[in-house]
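Regression test case RT-17, inverse folding.

Input:
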């Protein structure tokens, strides 16, 4: 098993040396203490750390899409494109097309959280 000997270098910065056995680490520490005069020395064993890999999925939403939530839904169910702003504005005194046309809005279909149509307005939905 490999070992690492940590010691301060001549300029005071941290230094280390890898050695293949504990006996060689001890000999290096003796040399650093007896010849170099260093007393701040440490020895660490290098052991391999077992690793495992997992599949990880990251979901990203494009910035040009916004969440859409139908009336009565408790959680977002889909995405719709962000409407782009109108580029042309009507001239003064000229009514816009949106004001001229009177189109009735569609009534949204109410659906309970279990996917069934609600039986009565007082129904909690999740007991049905």
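Golden output:
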């Amino acid at each position: 098993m490999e070992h690492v000997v940590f010691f301060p270098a001549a300029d005071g910065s941290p230094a280390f040396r890898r050695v293949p056995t504990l006996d060689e680490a001890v000999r290096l520490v003796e040399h650093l203490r007896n010849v170099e005069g260093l007393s701040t020395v440490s020895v660490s064993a290098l052991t391999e750390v077992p690793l495992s890999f997992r599949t990880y999925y990251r979901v990203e939403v494009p910035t040009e899409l916004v969440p859409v939530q139908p009336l009565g839904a408790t959680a977002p169910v889909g995405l719709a494109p962000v409407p782009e702003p109108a580029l042309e504005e009507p001239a003064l005194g000229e009514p816009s097309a949106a004001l001229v046309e009177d189109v009735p809005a569609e009534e949204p279909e109410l659906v309970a959280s279990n996917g069934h149509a609600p039986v009565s307005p007082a129904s909690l939905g999740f007991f049905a």
